[in-house]
Predict the 3D structure of the following.
Amino acid sequence: MAHEIVHALQDQHFDLIAIDDFAVDSDHEAAITALIEGDATLGMTDYMLGYLDPLDLAALLGESLTEADTAVLDAAPAYISEGLLFSYDAGQTFATALLTTTAATARSTKHSTTSPASTEQILHPRSTSARMLIGQ
């Protein structure tokens, strides 16, 4: 639920529907999607760690590991399975780098509102082009 609430807040501030028109190509769209999903996944993780006691957190994690039927995903070629998970996994890593860099430099008023231009920036948040995006 926390993940979806983050999406609702993102939509209020950034109009997620308009993103399809904003993206210049499929790689740009994948990068934006990774930022959106990564931010929501980071928010969900932060909520779980901040508000669930250790027993509830352990129970939730245990349920998620046992109830998920990943046979179809596991049988899919790596290109497909990794592509489906990219925006959540790599996006969370990028969102964490963005948050950490912004907090560490305390530049919230100067924070760039530019979207990532490509998945290269998502995969390599310390690259020159990603550092330019996050203002390092």
About this structure: The CA atoms of residues 73 and 81 lie 6 Å apart. Residues 78-105 form the longest helix (28 residues).
